[in-house]
Specification:
Strands 1-2-3-4-5 form a five-stranded mixed beta sheet, with helices on both faces. It has helices at residues 17-29, 37-50, 96-111, 124-131, and strands spanning 12-13, 53-59, 65-76, 79-89, 115-118. The N and C termini lie far apart (51 Å). The protein is built from four helices and five strands. 12% of the residues are buried. The longest helix is centred in the last third of the chain and has 16 residues, at 96-111. Helix 3 (96-111) links the parallel strand 4 and strand 5. By secondary structure, it is α+β, with helices and mostly antiparallel strands. It has one domain (9-131): Gcn5-related N-acetyltransferase (GNAT) (Aminopeptidase, 3-Layer(aba) Sandwich), CATH 3.40.630.
Length: 145
């Protein structure tokens, strides 16, 4: 994807090095982010090489990143599911959240995937209201003293 070909507010699938670098930089900007950057970069590389994951991005009129999502395909005892590894939407573009969600849903329909999962540390109720998601589990932690 060439910068001059980018249309604003359109969702693209990208494996471009410079775009991926921008996505990785967003990890540092997200508040309360607990994703280990080195592990995320390794996972991202593995997804792209093995074709088990994708990076979705959107840009504004000045070709600045306005949203990104890293998704990956996994398999468990109940079948195949899509996992949202990382998601970021610029605060100035809240309506992009629904556009990304619709893109992911369409991607699942095309591949016959019946489940989408993500780990969150806040915002459960907002996601439930926006997209009809429901909580099935939380990751709990206990400190070892």
């Amino acid at each position: 994807m060439k910068k001059e070909e980018i249309e604003p507010n359109v969702i693209y699938y990208s494996a471009n090095y410079y775009v991926l670098a921008e996505v990785i930089k967003k990890l540092d900007e997200v508040k309360k982010n607990d994703i280990l950057k080195e592990e995320f970069v390794l996972r991202l590389g593995r997804y792209l090489i093995n074709k088990t994951g994708m990076v979705l991005v959107s840009f504004d009129e000045e070709k600045k990143l306005t949203g990104c999502q890293v998704i990956s395909r996994h398999l468990d005892n109940m079948g195949e599911y899509l996992w949202i590894d990382f998601a970021w939407i610029s605060p100035g573009y809240p309506w992009l959240r629904e556009k990304f969600f619709n893109e992911i849903m369409e991607n699942c329909r095309m591949r016959g995937i019946k489940r989408i999962q993500a780990r969150m540390n806040k915002g459960y109720k907002a996601m439930e209201k926006l997209f009809g998601t429901y909580e099935i589990a939380r990751i709990l932690e206990k400190k070892v003293i």
